[in-house]
């Protein structure tokens, strides 16, 4: 497949792996966090750890939109579908996230909730057009990448005069979450203890550019390399991070020059800015309340805001006590450190959100990497 | 499909504009007419013509000593018509293949139809014609059937359940528990075509070259493989859940591990591109005309030769080996050179694929 196979080539991988092995200082330990679940998935799916020396480790970050959704948000959506007869349109990933009362969106659907899986917000608009007599709500989740389409859909709903369309805006932001992680004091003995740098998500930066990460290098002295989602992109980024660490540099570097610029996509940023504004605080699963880390719909577009339209108070719900998703999302624990990983909590019966999405650290390890545990045992 | 043809109907079925109504499942004349003019007209044979509550079949005498293989499969695919096939031929192929991969010769089929009130008779005729062609091509006879009609909104056009009966000669003993460490794992051709064809039609994705379902009967290929003399341990057709699910089933049944080489697994570029776009893994996608075979490693080349000589096995290739692994893991060396597990799929990737 053109434009894809080139970035999965085994020979080039060997070559980069040889450079990494040669340049990684055996006296040092390198721990890098891949912030984004897309990278977590790529690393596990292609077996990238097999190509890294033992002293270069990847720590999974919180950048999985489904994983960081708190239970209370899913509960809100379930109530809308089951108690208010609203048609809920959602991305497939959120369907299986465990919610209160042993429910999930999928189970609520089986109990009669009209919950529909869509591939894009444009599909949700179509559902609204096709069902003028029903309220149609789009469960808008995701990082900066999926935010512009939500903004465009709201603008389009206004232009078309759609009266039955709304969105529950749960869009979250990458840089504030990184700052939150960096502000937390490192816990000795955890995977993130000696975190030396970040692999940043390229698709987020195609929208916001590379500039919003500059504080990570300037204020916290940690290098960031923005990387694409193919395995060779990730490996190249790891090599670039090792070089920065070895040379004592802390800069924002861009591996994904094929689409990322410093300023990003100004038009997309403008659309988002027109329709959405910062929330003062937002609850993330695992990270708790993070200031200025999410977006809501502006007053001017309030008619499309499900929170205003349906008067749906938010109630925080604590995670299952045995679940370590919080610590895993903060990089403090690995999936195998969780007592219920692979026993009570599996992709078929997830307890925690990290086991749900294919981008979740637990699901990725369970699905692609758990043979390593058997080798180690 | 029991019922006696009574002469003198005032009007034949309107196969152009007519629709299924509740009387077509009511047990009265309308049902007999539907069976006679549509089902028996296309699918009839000497057995179906017996017209009793059950069909009496000969087996064993002309085939020599052996056993029966029976398999049943319900088909609820949506859409009913898709590039490369439809629910009619699919319902024949699916069951014929389940019988054939046991090493048996498929002989007979039964079919149960659940029709939704309002379904166009013209579409039903297309489906029945397609079933008839598929059955004739596979050399199987439809020997019993049933028709029920449900009210509008209680079904989705047509559901078809078929049961297949085949003859398994003495001495052939294939099974999911027969794989042994060291054995070779083969696949008969490109994977993922059926699921992507369905998905593409459902999502209205247009491809430069439309991806066709691979739906096909495999009993010719399995016969050629058995005749090759290779020490075959087992055959399986990787339908729902795809290659990944089928290999995990084999690993569990046989108590072994399986190691795949990603670079060796044949996937059409257009299927790979569609999967990339839809976020799917070709290893999890349903096939309806492919099989996996496990055989003694020394016989793999001979078996591949026999497979490639048959049209359904032209692109057959070796994709991995059976390993000694108490964890029964299916693993894969990725194209990148790393390693990963190939696990069962959690949840439902593509509902109503077959």
Search tags:
heterodimer, A: 377 residues, 4-stranded parallel β-sheet, 15 helices, B: 354 residues, alpha+beta, 8 helices
SSE topology:
The complex is a heterodimer of chains A (377) and B (354).
Chain A: H1 10-23, E1 30-36, H2 37-45, E2 56-63, H3 71-83, E3 87-90, H4 105-110, E4 115-117, H5 121-130, E5 136-142, H6 147-160, E6 165-171, H7 174-183, E7 195-201, H8 202-208, H9 214-220, E8 224-227, H10 231-247, E9 252-254, H11 266-275, E10 276-278, E11 281-284, E12 288-291, E13 295-297, H12 306-310, H13 325-329, H14 361-369, H15 371-376
Parallel strand pairs in A: 1-2, 1-7, 3-4, 3-5, 5-6, 7-8, 8-9
Antiparallel strand pairs in A: 10-13, 11-12
Chain B: H1 29-43, E1 66-75, E2 81-82, E3 85-86, H2 87-100, E4 105-116, H3 121-138, E5 141-150, E6 158-169, E7 184-187, H4 193-202, H5 219-227, E8 232-236, H6 242-254, E9 257-261, H7 269-278, E10 292-295, H8 300-308, E11 317-323, E12 330-333, E13 339-341
Parallel strand pairs in B: 4-5, 9-12
Antiparallel strand pairs in B: 1-6, 2-3, 4-6, 7-10, 7-11, 8-10, 9-11, 12-13
Helix pairs in contact in B: 1-3, 2-3
């Amino acid at each position: 497949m053109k434009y894809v196979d080139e970035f999965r080539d085994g020979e080039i991988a060997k070559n980069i792996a040889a450079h990494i092995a040669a340049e990684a200082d055996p006296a040092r330990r390198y721990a890098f966090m891949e912030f984004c679940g897309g990278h977590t998935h790529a690393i596990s799916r292609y077996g990238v750890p097999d190509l890294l020396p033992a002293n270069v480790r990847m720590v999974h970050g919180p950048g999985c939109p489904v994983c960081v959704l708190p239970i209370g948000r899913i509960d809100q959506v379930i109530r809308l579908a089951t108690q208010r007869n609203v048609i809920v349109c959602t991305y497939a990933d959120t369907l299986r996230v465990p919610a209160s009362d042993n429910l999930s969106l999928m189970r609520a659907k089986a109990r009669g909730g009209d919950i529909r899986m869509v591939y894009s917000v444009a599909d949700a608009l179509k559902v609204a057009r096709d069902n003028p007599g029903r309220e149609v709500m789009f469960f808008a989740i995701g990082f900066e990448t999926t935010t512009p389409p939500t903004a465009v859909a709201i603008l389009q709903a206004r232009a078309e005069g759609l009266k039955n369309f709304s969105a529950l805006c749960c869009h979250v932001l990458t840089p504030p979450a990184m700052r939150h992680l960096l502000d937390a004091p490192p816990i000795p003995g955890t995977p993130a203890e000696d975190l030396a740098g970040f692999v940043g998500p390229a698709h987020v930066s195609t929208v916001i550019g590379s500039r919003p990460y500059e504080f990570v290098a300037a204020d916290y002295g940690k290098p960031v390399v923005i990387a694409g989602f193919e395995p060779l992109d990730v490996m190249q980024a790891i090599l670039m991070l090792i070089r920065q660490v070895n040379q004592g540099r802390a800069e924002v570097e861009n591996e994904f020059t094929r689409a990322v610029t410093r300023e990003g996509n100004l038009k997309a940023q403008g659309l988002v800015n027109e329709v959405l504004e910062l929330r003062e605080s937002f609850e993330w699963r695992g990270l708790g309340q993070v200031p200025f880390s999410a977006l809501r719909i502006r007053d001017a577009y309030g008619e499309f805001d499900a929170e205003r339209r349906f008067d749906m108070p938010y109630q925080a719900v604590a995670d299952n006590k045995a679940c370590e998703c919080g610590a895993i999302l903060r990089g403090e624990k690995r999936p195998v450190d969780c007592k219920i990983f692979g026993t009570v909590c599996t992709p078929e019966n997830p307890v925690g959100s990290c086991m749900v999405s294919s981008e979740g650290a637990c699901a990725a390890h369970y699905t692609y990497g758990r043979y390593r545990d058997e080798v180690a045992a | 499909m029991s019922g006696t043809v009574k002469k003198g109907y005032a009007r034949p079925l309107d196969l152009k504009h007519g629709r299924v109504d509740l009387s077509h499942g009511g047990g009265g004349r309308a049902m007999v007419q539907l069976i006679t003019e549509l089902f028996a007209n296309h699918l009839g044979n000497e057995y179906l013509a017996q017209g009793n509550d059950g069909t009496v079949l000969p087996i064993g005498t002309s085939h020599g000593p052996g056993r029966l293989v029976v398999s049943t499969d319900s088909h609820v695919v949506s859409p009913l018509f898709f590039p490369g096939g439809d629910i009619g031929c699919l319902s024949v192929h699916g069951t014929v293949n389940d019988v054939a991969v046991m090493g048996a010769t498929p002989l007979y089929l039964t079919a149960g139809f659940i029709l939704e009130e309002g379904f166009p008779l013209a579409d039903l005729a297309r489906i029945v014609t397609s079933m008839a062609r598929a059955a004739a091509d596979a050399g199987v006879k439809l020997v019993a059937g049933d028709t029920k009609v449900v009210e509008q909104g209680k079904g989705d056009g047509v559901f078809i359940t078929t049961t297949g009966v085949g003859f398994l000669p003495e001495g052939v003993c294939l099974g999911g528990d027969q794989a042994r460490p060291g054995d070779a794992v083969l696949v008969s051709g490109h994977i993922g075509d059926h699921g992507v064809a369905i998905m593409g039609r459902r999502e209205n994705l247009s491809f430069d070259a439309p991806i066709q379902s691979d739906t096909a009967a495999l009993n010719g290929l399995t016969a050629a493989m058995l005749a090759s003399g290779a020490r075959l341990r087992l055959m399986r057709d990787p339908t729902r859940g795809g290659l990944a699910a089928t290999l995990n089933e084999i690993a569990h049944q046989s108590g072994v591990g399986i190691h795949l080489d990603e670079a060796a697994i044949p996937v059409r570029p257009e299927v790979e591109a569609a999967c990339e776009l839809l976020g799917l893994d070709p290893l999890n996608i349903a096939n309806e005309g492919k099989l996996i075979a496990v055989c003694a490693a020394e016989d793999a080349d001979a078996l591949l030769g026999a497979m490639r000589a048959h049209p359904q096995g032209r692109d057959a290739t070796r994709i991995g080996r059976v390993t000694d692994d108490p964890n029964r893991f299916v693993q894969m060396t990725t194209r990148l050179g790393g390693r990963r597990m190939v696990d069962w799929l959690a949840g439902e990737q593509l509902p109503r694929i077959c």
